[in-house]
Amino acid sequence: MTSFWSWWVIVLTVITFVGITWILLGNRKRGEGETDKTTGHAHDGIEEYDNPLPAWWFYMFVITIVWAIGYLIIYPGMGNYPGLIGWTQIGQHEAEVEAAEARYSEMRSRYLATPVEEIAQDPAVRRMGMRLFGNNCAQCHGADGKGRYGFPNLTDDDWLYGGSPEALKATLVNGRRAAMPAWAGVLGDQGIAEATEYVLSLNGRSTDADMTAAGEGHYQMYCAACHGADAKGNYLFGAPNLTNGIWLYGGSREQIAHSLRAGRNGVMPAFGESLTEDKIHILAAYIYSLSN
Questions:
Q1: How far is residue 163's CA from residue 234's CA, in Å, rounded to a whole number?
Q2: Positive or negative, the Cα torsion across 51, 55, 58, 60?
Q3: Hey, how many other C-beta atoms are within 10 angstroms of the C-beta on 63?
Q4: Where in the chain are the domains?
Q5: Hey, which of 39, 123, 149, 208 has its CA 20 to 30 A from 279?
Q6: What stretches of the chain show up as alpha helix (H) in DSSP?
Q7: Under CATH, domain 91-177+269-291 is a member of which superfamily?
Q8: Was domain 184-265 assigned CATH 3.20.20.210?
Q9: pLDDT one-digit tens code per residue, 265-286
Q10: Are 264 and 180 contacting, i.e. CB atoms less than 8 angstroms apart?
Q11: Do 91-177+269-291 and 184-265 come out as alike in CATH topology?
């Protein structure tokens, strides 16, 4: 914080300590000759006496004040003053993380030496993988891994970039960036409508025969390079299978047309720098287990 607000906190804290101490000491004893002084409150003949605090109670207050002063000397709390030991929440967190890493690294290293397929069904690995998934993946793919609009379902056998252990680890380490181009400028509204009819026909949907025939020509010219001549997709480009009825952005006529018209550019973040190799291995095993 700025120097002004730092001093503001310090001054207010000191005033508070001085005020509390003055009140405590000022009410410790009565003046000379005063006995049985009352507050003036009375109810049913019962009067409230204005006696000093019992000694044990008074000294407990003194101890709390001394303790608070000692705390603010040792730990931060007075504006920008860092405290004698330089403690910070971030520093404590990092120390605890370092201790946990040292404690569990040997166990994770043992799992790292074992193939993903072998550890995928290990209950201990699944528990660790579930926590890693919850912290890093569930925000997009859902706690159950079943995905949602624009985020793939990880529990089926349909994969954009491959579902092998090697492919999963490559996806986690490097991330993925989709590159479905927009075709509105090339095909125009009529061409988009025709290509949409052809894609629908690949899934056995009822379509207009003439538009479907024209759409097949558009597909072979512009789409087959990525999705394949048979429209079964291609892991290399992350091009989805267009024949199995599984749609990342919806399979209605309007949604397919929008994908063709505007393109799609989803981004899967890379975790290679934020997660260690052994954690990537365990997380890949958990994801592998969801669909195997």
A1: 12
A2: negative
A3: 10
A4: 3-29+37-74, 91-177+269-291, 184-265
A5: 149
A6: 3-26, 55-74, 89-112, 116-119, 123-136, 138-141, 165-174, 184-201, 209-218, 224-227, 253-262, 277-291
A7: Cytochrome c-like domain (1.10.760.10)
A8: no
A9: 999 999 999 999 999 999 999 9
A10: yes
A11: yes
